[in-house]
């Protein structure tokens, strides 16, 4: 699962906590708590000639924006961009159930987009990436 592989990679880089107590990174959903959280969404765009595929990954960061933290979600996504943009020939979750071999990851924009507040006036930011991935023989391209 590409979203899980990206979340694990961001966790290994120290940017989020994923798949453990106190997690602040979620797959395909941004639950109401914790307030400060990040969601990883994926979209399969194209399966190639049995050995590669294209996917879009969208990161959405949410913060409460109080105490001078209005741009902390923005900064979290810029830090994620530093980790992911230009990533090439790297295996995410090596040997794990979500193993994905990234040929190239490219940010879709220079900086995160302000999505405006959610229903509870918490600030949200978004940043997308295009990923080209290699697939093992017999592996299905799935997000």
Descriptive overview:
By secondary structure, the chain is α+β, with helices and mostly antiparallel strands. The chain is 17% helix and 37% strand. It contains 2 helices and 7 strands; from the N terminus they run αβββαββββ. It has helices spanning 2-12, 72-84, and strands at residues 25-27, 37-47, 52-63, 88-92, 100-107, 113-114, 123-134. It is globular, with a radius of gyration of 15 Å. It starts with a helix and ends in a 9-residue tail after the last strand.
The low-pLDDT segments are 137-143
Number of helical stretches of at least 4 residues: 2
Strands, count:
7
Overall pLDDT confidence: 89
Helix content: 10-25%
Instruction: Report the principal-axis shape.
Output: globular
Structural class comes to alpha+beta
**How many whole angstroms does the radius of gyration measure?**
15 Å
Q: Helix and strand succession?
A: HEEEHEEEE
Largest sheet descriptor: 7 strands, mixed
- Termini gap: 5 Å
Q: How large is the share of residues in beta strands?
A: 35-45%
Explain the layout of strands and helices:
Layout lengths: L1 H11 L12 E3 L9 E11 L4 E12 L8 H13 L3 E5 L7 E8 L5 E2 L8 E12 L9
């Amino acid at each position: 699962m590409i979203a899980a592989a990206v979340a694990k990679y961001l966790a290994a880089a120290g940017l989020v906590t994923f798949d453990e107590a106190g997690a602040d990174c979620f797959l395909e959903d941004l639950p109401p708590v914790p307030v400060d959280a990040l969601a990883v969404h994926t979209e399969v765009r194209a399966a190639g000639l049995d050995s590669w595929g294209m996917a879009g990954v969208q990161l959405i960061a949410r913060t409460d924006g109080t105490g001078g933290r209005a741009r902390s979600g923005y900064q979290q996504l810029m830090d994620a961009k530093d980790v992911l943009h230009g990533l090439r020939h790297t295996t995410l979750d090596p040997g794990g159930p979500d193993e994905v071999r990234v040929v190239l990851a490219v940010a879709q924009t220079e900086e995160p987009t302000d999505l405006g507040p959610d229903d509870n006036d918490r600030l949200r930011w978004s940043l997308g990436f295009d990923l080209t991935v290699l697939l093992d023989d017999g592996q299905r391209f799935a997000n």
